[in-house]
């Protein structure tokens, strides 16, 4: 009897010891927060050299984490960059991935892996909050007054609280999961991008009703909502329409709720802020804070919002087990459709830093982004020169959580150690995309010939399109002022060959 009791006790002890050892060998998966902002320039943060504006919360993350100097979006505009981030493939490989109108159909494939499905399959609760701009539904013609799908929930997210496209495009409503928030049955929404619908005033016909003037010829002169002319026409949904000043605060509130509700499980939050994209109409407490017009005020609001997210993680004691990634979808633009003080009150601020171009441009300022990583396992106060692209986030996060990069994410490179700052060898080369394609390898950048415009007068941005080869040494000439193509034809041939290989792959 005693021998049997000893045997049982010994067995219980061994099982407990084995389970304890197994638990110790299984590291806790880190939460992941991807903060993706809109139209922020390489020179817009203090940690990247800005002196006319202060960004203390993001500067703190840079001091306590890794700041990349060669981190890229794939494209110089928003929709294609977001497509690459979601799918792990370059957007120029597929037609229909350009800047989408507000009524576009979903362009993210539902039958292929996304960054959200990879993490969900790895045991994560997944959520997207903020700007979407990847289309909704099966077609342009959709009923905004019933379930709107497919959308984020059909491509890997467990929870979604978004606006459909950009803040300057209709419909100006929040969509939670599949439903417009606050919509009333007797006031249905109708949207058109081809003709005026309804009797609501427009910026073109009633400029006296605008509280923010539209820039001429930009197209922001259709239906007036909250005193701001939009792109596209909308009627109905009066009580469902958001107010621009509340956008960021609403998204922040929803993000905090998502973090709180999922604090006991590993979670992935794709937090897509609208700042500093137009129309820039920050909350009242931020107006005038930057002395750089509403664009500067929007950057101050963005920085504060990031600080609030970090504060929430710290309050819930999640900061020791969370990786936060901060970057932007494309480069800066000042006048992108509204007269908001961004040009007149620039006051010596350089949104692109020492780089040339901006949003829409194949020059560096179009795609070289502020990029900061902070949190669990991340090196502290490190400046990384590793070459990395946002298309790599899918494979890198899969590697971080011990998952496998799906084969269809063909352009995504697994570089989790580079992301955390524990390794320095990034990509061999990266493809950049605007009106044409460019390739960067080491210090050299080659831009393919293009018949497109060299300069956008409306935005006052050099687009970088020329009918001949362009070659720049970025270490000696970060402003891309000296075309060396004729002096180094062998380098032109090498980079052109690499680019053609990618295009034909």
TrEMBL record:
Annotated protein name in UniProt: Arylsulfatase
Naturally occurring in which organism (per UniProt): Candidatus Sphingobacterium stercoripullorum
Similarity-based family: Belongs to the sulfatase family.
UniProt keyword Hydrolase, yes or no: yes
PROSITE patterns reported for this sequence: PROKAR_LIPOPROTEIN, SULFATASE_1, SULFATASE_2
Keywords, sorted A to Z: Hydrolase
CDD domains assigned to the protein according to its UniProt record, in alphabetical order: ARS_like
Top-rank taxon, per record: Bacteria
Key word Amino-acid biosynthesis present: no
Pfam families: Sulfatase
GO-annotated molecular function: hydrolase activity
Residues covered by the Sulfatase N-terminal domain: 30-402
InterPro entries found in the cross-reference section: Alkaline_phosphatase_core_sf (IPR017850), GAG_Ulvan_Degrading_Sulfatases (IPR052701), Sulfatase_CS (IPR024607), Sulfatase_N (IPR000917)
């Amino acid at each position: 009897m005693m021998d049997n009791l000893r045997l049982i006790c010994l067995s219980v002890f061994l099982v407990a010891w084995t389970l304890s050892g197994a638990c110790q060998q299984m590291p806790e998966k880190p939460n992941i927060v991807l903060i993706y902002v809109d139209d922020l320039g390489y020179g817009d943060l203090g940690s990247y050299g800005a002196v006319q504006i202060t960004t203390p919360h993001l500067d703190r993350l840079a001091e306590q984490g890794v700041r990349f100097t060669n981190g890229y979006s794939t494209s110089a505009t928003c929709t294609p960059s977001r497509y690459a981030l979601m799918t792990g493939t370059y957007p120029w490989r597929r037609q229909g991935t350009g800047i989408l109108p507000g009524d576009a159909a979903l362009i993210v494939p539902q039958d292929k892996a996304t960054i959200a499905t990879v993490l969900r399959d790895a045991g994560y609760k997944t959520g997207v909050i903020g700007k979407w701009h990847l289309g909704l539904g099966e077609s342009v013609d959709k009923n905004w007054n019933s379930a709107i799908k497919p959308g984020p929930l059909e491509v890997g997210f467990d929870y979604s609280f978004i606006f459909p496209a950009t803040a300057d495009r209709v419909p100006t409503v929040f969509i939670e999961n599949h439903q417009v928030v606050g919509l009333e049955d007797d006031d249905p929404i109708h949207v058109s991008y081809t003709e005026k619908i309804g009797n609501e005033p427009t910026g073109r016909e009633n400029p006296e009703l605008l509280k923010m003037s539209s820039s001429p010829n930009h197209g922001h002169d259709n239906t007036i909502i909250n005193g701001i002319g939009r792109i596209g026409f909308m009627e109905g949904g009066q009580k469902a329409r958001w107010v621009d000043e509340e956008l960021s605060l609403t998204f922040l509130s929803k993000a905090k709720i998502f973090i709180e509700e999922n604090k006991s499980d590993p979670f992935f939050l794709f937090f897509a802020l609208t700042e500093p994209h137009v129309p820039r109409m920050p909350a009242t407490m931020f107006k005038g804070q930057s002395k750089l017009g509403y664009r500067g005020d929007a950057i101050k609001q963005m920085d504060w919002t990031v600080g609030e997210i970090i504060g929430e993680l710290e309050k819930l004691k999640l900061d020791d087990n969370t990786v936060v990634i901060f970057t932007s979808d494309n480069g800066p633009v000042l006048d992108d459709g509204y007269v908001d003080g961004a040009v007149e009150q620039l006051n010596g601020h350089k949104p692109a830093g020492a780089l040339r171009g901006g949003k829409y441009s194949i020059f560096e300022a179009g795609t070289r982004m502020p990029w900061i990583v902070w949190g669990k396992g991340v090196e502290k106060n490190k400046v990384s020169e590793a070459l990395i692209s946002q298309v790599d986030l899918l494979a890198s996060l899969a590697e971080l959580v011990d998952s496998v990069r799906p084969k269809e994410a063909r352009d995504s490179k697994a570089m989790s150690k580079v992301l955390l700052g524990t390794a320095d060898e990034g990509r061999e080369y990266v493809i950049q995309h605007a009106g044409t394609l460019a390739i960067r390898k080491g210090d050299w950048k080659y831009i393919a010939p293009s018949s497109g415009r060299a300069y956008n007068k409306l935005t006052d941005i050099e687009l970088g399109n020329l009918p001949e080869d362009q070659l720049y040494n970025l270490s000696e000439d970060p402003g891309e002022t000296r075309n060396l193509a004729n002096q180094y034809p062998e380098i032109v041939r090498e980079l052109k060959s690499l680019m053609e290989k990618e295009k034909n792959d």
